[in-house]
Amino acid sequence: MSHNILDLIGNTPMVESKVLNQNPNVKLYFKLEGNNPGGSVKDRPAFNMIKSGMDRGEIKTTSKLIEATSGNTGIALAMIAGIYGLDIELVMPENSTKERVQTMRAYGAKVILTPTDVGIEGARDYAEAKVKDEGYIMLNQFGNNDNWKSHYQTTGPEIWKDTAGNITHFVSSMGTTGTIMGVSTYLKEKASDIQIVGVQPTDNAKIPGIRKWPQEYLPKIFDPKKVDQIIEVSEMDATKMTRQLATKEGIFAGMSSGGAAAAALRLARTLKSGVIVSIVCDRGDRYLSSELFE
């Protein structure tokens, strides 16, 4: 029995692809991060960023927190800030799905919507101005080492344990890059020949949760040396695979998970043998008002 909802963060299950993976010599596992209490992989860094900041005395109960988010990090931060009695303001583009906005507000956060045409970069600029002008504290998932360290401490060890150390390839969508940085750091310490595969959108493709950042917005926590290969996926491929995950594997997830799965399956077709783990970032129910499942 868990005494606190925070105890349920992490130790998410992995399931083997039984339909989509057609290579009999390759095992493909999906790690189901939607099973975290806040519904996504972002529960891990959100908890570590807030808890570590409080432990260091950088965040106090009187602090005014702010963060720019495309969705999942905001939901996780809203949940965890509420548990600790912290005020938090979350900034996101106005074209974000209403489920995400409503979930953040349900947890007690203040949500600010910025114009669609300036994207997440515009939301980041807004949050940074509030820090500069009004004394807010930004958690800064794009530059906060507590982001990737959460995956070094939890996600990486879980994958190593659940594959009995047999993993050969790790596949992850890249947004803040915290997941891939932390897992790569851990797995490479265990076995340097494990291949770390990042997933990015093709040029001009819009896939929530996956970004190809302009140089000036590239996350400060990102180290390209920790990624062995990058596979680009199109909006169409990510959408199609997200739907197939639901209909063929029973995995109801968001579009970034479909993008990662598309890359993982493309990779599986090229291997003579191997064990691939692909991250399923979140649950599909926060995309139902979008066109993803129409």
TrEMBL record:
What biological-process GO terms show up in the record? cysteine biosynthetic process from serine
The family database entries (PROSITE patterns) matched by this protein are listed as: CYS_SYNTHASE (PS00901)
**InterPro entries documented for this protein:** Cys_synth, Cys_Synth/Cystath_Beta-Synth, CysM, P-phosphate_BS, TrpB-like_PALP, TrpB-like_PALP_sf
Residues at which pyridoxal 5'-phosphate binds: N72, G175, T176, T177, G178, T179, S256
**Record keywords, A-Z:** Amino-acid biosynthesis, Cysteine biosynthesis, Pyridoxal phosphate, Transferase
Q: Which Pfam family, just one, is annotated for this protein?
A: PALP
In which pathway is this protein known to take part? Answer: Amino-acid biosynthesis; L-cysteine biosynthesis; L-cysteine from L-serine: step 2/2
- Please report the stretch or stretches of sequence annotated as the Tryptophan synthase beta chain-like PALP domain: 6-282
Write out the catalysed reaction.
Answer: O-acetyl-L-serine + hydrogen sulfide = L-cysteine + acetate
The cofactors it requires, by name, are: pyridoxal 5'-phosphate
Q: Which sequence positions carry the modification called N6-(pyridoxal phosphate)lysine?
A: K42
Q: Which GO terms describe its molecular function?
A: cysteine synthase activity
Domain of life, per UniProt, equals: Bacteria
In short, the EC number is 2.5.1.47
The text of the family note is:
Belongs to the cysteine synthase/cystathionine beta-synthase family.
Q: What is this protein called?
A: Cysteine synthase
The species this protein was found in: Cerina litoralis
